[in-house]
Amino acid sequence: PRPLAAIASRLPQWPPSTALAAGLNLLLLPLLGAETRSALRGRVVSIQVSDAGIDCRVRLASIGFVPARAAPDVAIRASAHDYWRLAQRAEDPDTLFFARRLVIEGDTELGLALKNALDAVEWSPASLAAALKRPFASPRA
Q1: What is the rounded distance in angstroms from the CA atom of residue 140 to the CA atom of residue 93?
Q2: 10: number of Cβ within 10 Å
Q3: What is the strand order of the sheet 64-67 is part of?
Q4: How far apart are alpha carbons 45 and 55 in whole angstroms?
Q5: Does residue 107 contact residue 73 with C-beta atoms inside 8 Å?
Q6: Three-state secondary-structure class, residue 49
């Protein structure tokens, strides 16, 4: 709802950015290939939830994903519902992109590399359970 988004957009974005970085380190980082890590290293990625007024910014550092305050190199924006549909694999990112419900701004090549990396991840309940059980992987691996 708009009133909630109006409030959330005025709150510090550091806590949700920290939560996103932790989730990416746990679930995505161990699955990223060397080429994708190289493309992401040091680059600021903004994940914006348009209807909630949230702008999470992270960058890949030598220790893994960390929150970032700098201007983003690439921004990916969608509604909470559309992100949920993407996570459930109920909606195709290309369909949302061409319907202008998923927006990529800035370095679109970086955004495309990130989108492709996320598309390649298996998000089944079994794979998520396995990710939660494995020890934290070194980002240098």
Answers
A1: 29
A2: 8
A3: 64-67, 54-61, 44-49, 74-78, 103-106
A4: 10
A5: yes
A6: strand
- Show Cβ contacts of residue 32 under 8 Å, excluding neighbours closer than 6 positions: 40, 117
Q: How far apart are CA 109 and CA 111, in angstroms?
A: 5
Amino acid at 71: A
How does strand 74-78 pair with strand 103-106?
Answer: antiparallel
* pLDDT tens sequence across 40-85: 999 999 999 998 889 999 999 999 999 999 999 999 999 999 988 8
Residues 6+ apart with CB under 8 A from 11: none
Note whether 57 and 91 are within 8 A (CB). no
Asked if the model's pLDDT at residue 140 lies above 60, the reply is: no
pTM for this predicted structure = 0.81
Which amino acid is present at 139?
P
Q: Tell me if 43 sits within 8 A of 68, measured CB to CB.
A: no
Q: Which residues of 86-107 are buried (b: 16+ CB within 10 A; e: fewer)?
A: beeeebebeebbeeebbebebb
